Amino acid sequence: MPTPDVTPIIPELILMVAACLVLVVEPFLKLDKTAVVAIALTGLLAYGAAAFALLGQDMAGFNDMVVINDYAIFFKVLFAAAGVMTVLMSPRYLEAHDRHLGEYYALLLFAILGMSVLAAARDLMAFYVGLELMAVSSYLLAGFFRYQLRSNEAALKYFLTGSFASAITLYGISMVYGFTGATNYAVVGTALAGGENTLAVAFATALVFAGLGFKVSVAPFHMWTPDVYEGAPTPIAGFFSVGPKAAGFAAILMMFLAVFEASVDTWTVIFIAFSIFTMLVGNLFALVQRNVKRMLAYSSIAHVGYLLAGMGALGRSGDLLAGEAILLYLAAYTFMNMGAFGVLVYLKTQQPVTFDYTLDDMAGLARRSPWAAILMSLFMFSLTGIPGTAGFIGKFYLFNAVVRADLVWLAAIAVIFSAVSAYYYLRVMIYMFFRESEEEFVVGESISGPLAASLGLAAAGVLFIGLVPARLVDASVGAFQNFLGL
Amino acid sequence: MEHEFASYMNWIVPLIPALPLTAFLVTILFGKWYIKEQAHWLPILAMAAAFVLSLLVWWEVRQADEGFYVELFTWIPVGDLQVPLAFYADRLSTAMIMMVTGVSTLIFIYSKGYMHGDPGYYRFFSYLSLFAFSMLVLVLGANYVMLFFGWEAVGLCSYYLIGFYYHKTSAAAAGKKAFITNRVGDFGFSLGIFLLFVTFGTLTYTEVFEAVELEGAGTATMTAIALLLFTGAMGKSAQFPLHVWLPDAMEGPTPVSALIHAATMVTAGVYMVARSSVIFASSETAMLVVAGVGAFTAIFAASIGIAQTDIKRVMAYSTVSQLGYMFMALGVGAWIPAIFHLITHAFFKALLFLGSGSVIHALSGEQDMRRMGGLRSRIPYTYWALLAGAIALSGIFPFAGFWSKDEILGIAFKDGAYIIWAIGLVAAFITAFYTFRLIFMTFWNESRMEPEVEHHVHESPWSMTVPLMVLGGLSLVGGFLGFPPEAGVFHHFLEPVFEPANEILGIHHEPFGGIDLTLMIVSVAVAVSGVVLAYFFYVRQRDLPEKAGAAAQPLYKAIYNKWYIDEIYDATVVRLVIDGSRFLWRSFDAAVIDGIVNGVGKLWEVSGAAVRPAQTGKVQNYAGVMFAGVFVLLSAVIIAYGL
């Protein structure tokens, strides 16, 4: 048996080695976990760098189970960025909660490994393995503060509902296997296109949609989201809101364009319908939240709604523009949402007991720590979609694609919901700048270097994408065109 | 002949705007807590460095006929519209950046003394740096989008700085007025850019101008583009009837008036028209409009200047009038004299503003000339500097203003535009009159100051007087850049830029001759007689102004009230808008829109509150909803397939 070529999975191998190293080193450490953090960080950077170095490669490995190409690399770099930001946010936060353990970083790396496989998979088996690796690591991370009721509850809810979702996905996949007898995307796609079982295929399409929809919190499969975000450690909540979501969309794009190409008319309608419902639910619930972390959870659901509209446009027109816009949006979203959670991490680290993520806790922030308030405003502006920020560029390209797909009405709905979202995003700013806090907050120790670096990275990403979008546009165009040449 | 530019041009050209940008960022971020009273150092050094780099660029550019183009990256890619972030340093933009960075450096240094002790000290310097950055992007940009970016950004800084003393109602109102008036012009300007893009499919200067030269686009289109662009210039460069904001802009601190409202920003319109010379040359109508508006503004604003009593307002109207001269020159195809006048005007007008700032500083904030007088011996440096500026502005040999102004008038005359020449000559007479009226009222005769103020009169610190002296020197000798007339260093430097436009117009200027000498003598005579008249009115027979005013009561009142332009706007545009919007507000907004908006807001609130219980927190319910969702989805699929 010839040795398999490992080139397509070099980045993943690096990540795996780093994760295992973390587990090996951890027992030898006492209180100071710097070594573990350094390993995790180095692993992530090496993972991203390796992926970057492979740019331009286009090859499949392991019997066409995984590929390395610009599309997979786009996501790997994105995951690396999200991972780096998460790791940098964590040490001081975990110390403040007396739970600074090495497993945390190992689990995070394993989750990213799963995501990475998910984006690179070209086979239903590899896809499922990636999905589960990501999911199981996530359940554990959500319950990482296991002595806290909320964290425990979050993990359990996530696990139970997540298992249902996995079962649903698996059911859909098994139907596909039943029709075609194959698991490779390209083979399955061709077979389905030539087959007849249209209702059954549509059924399988719907099931896989529901399963993946759970992962990216499409309403009505979203109900775990706010509870899990609220209960999970805040850096992890931020990570959940961007990482698995981007991975989910990487899989969704591939699954529906490659595997279910035959039922494109069916899933286009499904995506559009769920897009509207998800935008409605996300925005509506976000409006009434007084807890900023929960508000961000619902707002992330709303953003998924916009992305689903992009999928609808992609199915409707087959226009490259829509796919590129989705990638662009995911990248923009990663930086701005991670940044918003990062500011919350900072506040919670400063006041582990008194700060409870409510709007009232944010009151007078501009006076207490003007930098935090300014950064938070930047991220809120970006989430709203104010020009000059990444959020605007993302929305601009995405809605533009929707309009080009002759779905002007859908774009209009999305724009209206965006306008509604300004209400709850800008409300945070009103509290920070124009309300006085009722109690005297003692400003704790100053911001830690890594957290500052993480926030700086997020802010730089938001501004860079917002002011000089060309680089990222080129990257997403390259990635998506490469992906279509499957 | 393709010229090989030195490779360091690739980074020094982008560095010129980058330096003040850095100064801005650092000052605004760290100024309040860390830099505080030391906020002037970084902006001044950054500006001075930018000036040195500009000289380097000049050294390179003067060896080549064509400009230096450097593209950093694609800035906005949207379909066909690819806008690169690129800079274009040709002879015209190089002349501009040398002027902008040089004058800015002096004004920054002056501001150190003038703004000393102001609570917004760091804020002031950060805005100034941001302004310098915007202005440099405006003149260095390689396409109309960057021009527009700089255009709007300088506008923004100008509103900030006009309203710098935002607690003063008049300052806030003046900022608002500048904003609204400029919106009118910018609306036309942006339409012009759209039309340009639609017509030629590109916004990069070199490509647009080549397309215009080779293909053209029909006279009607070219006229429309040129006139729309000119609307923008009228707003920014304060030409009639969009000039009303500039005098009010004097509410800002004096260095701002000098930098923005005299030397640099207001010349953006002149620069833009000169930059687009090929476009304007393609339309006779547009040229006529430019010349007409310029000439009318020149005499109109000068006439208002006669009756103003606020020292800064006299200068403001004088600026409007001098900008009129520049447009007049552009309109008759005298591109180089227009830019020449722009540069000399920057020197002496910055000097005059800084000088009057020094006067105001010495008099503890007094700006009314009726309460000045006799300051000649009290603040001698300021007096001599201001006097130099005044002679230059009046156009008296051999000061800077003489050469550039005379050239404009000479070319107008030789081109047969006698009416324009005559208007220009009359305006020159008035200019000399009101300028020396200012000098005599402020520095001569006996003191009319309040005793309290008089007690405190003091010469300004060195940081204020040194820039004055430098600018005074430049006002004295700057004109010799254009010597001999129409064939000076300056003309040879700029000639290649305007060759294409001159070709379209078919202009071949005759060499300097006897006729020019005659015209020179005439204009000097006119200027001197203006000064002499002012001397009689304000030194010898000081009851004359009153008598004259009484004799021509309606005329005097009209010019005193600035020809009632503000009142006319109030009675027509403003009233119409206010009444109209009040009507809309009462009938439409309050009833319909508010109803809808409040209704929608209420709807969200109520429905949000109504759905809240749906999120029960029970995992059974979550799973239930999930399965319900799957069930509905599958049912829909089945129904759709007609089972």
What does the model show?
The complex is a heterodimer of chains A (486) and B (643). Chain A has 486 residues and is mainly alpha-helical. Chain A has one domain. Chain A is 77% helix and 1% strand. Chain A has helices at 10-25, 34-53, 70-96, 102-120, 124-142, 149-180, 185-194, 198-215, 224-231, 234-259, 264-287, 292-317, 320-350, 359-362, 365-368, 370-384, 390-404, 408-434, 449-467, 470-484, and strands spanning 59-61, 66-68. In chain A, α8 packs antiparallel against α10 (234-259), α12 (292-317) packs parallel to α17 (390-404) and α13 runs antiparallel to α19 (449-467). Chain B has 643 residues and is mainly alpha-helical. Chain B contains 26 helices and 2 strands. Chain B has helices at residues 9-35, 41-61, 91-114, 121-140, 144-162, 169-200, 205-214, 219-236, 245-248, 254-263, 268-275, 277-281, 284-305, 311-331, 335-362, 380-394, 400-414, 418-443, 451-455, 462-477, 489-505, 514-540, 544-551, 553-560, 565-611, 619-640, and strands at 68-78, 81-89. Chain B has a two-stranded antiparallel sheet with strand order 1-2. In chain B, a hairpin with a 2-residue loop joins β1 and β2. The longest helix of chain B has 47 residues, at 565-611. In chain B, 51% of the residues are buried. The model of chain B has no long low-confidence stretch (mean pLDDT 80). Chains A and B meet through α6, α8, α9, α11 and α20 of A and β1, α25 and α26 of B.
Essential attributes:
heterodimer, A: 486 residues, mainly alpha, two-stranded antiparallel ribbon, 20 helices, 77% helix, 1% strand, globular, B: 643 residues, 26 helices, 74% helix, 3% strand
How would you summarize this macromolecular structure in one to three sentences?
The complex is a heterodimer of chains A (486) and B (643). Chain A is mainly alpha-helical and 486 residues long.
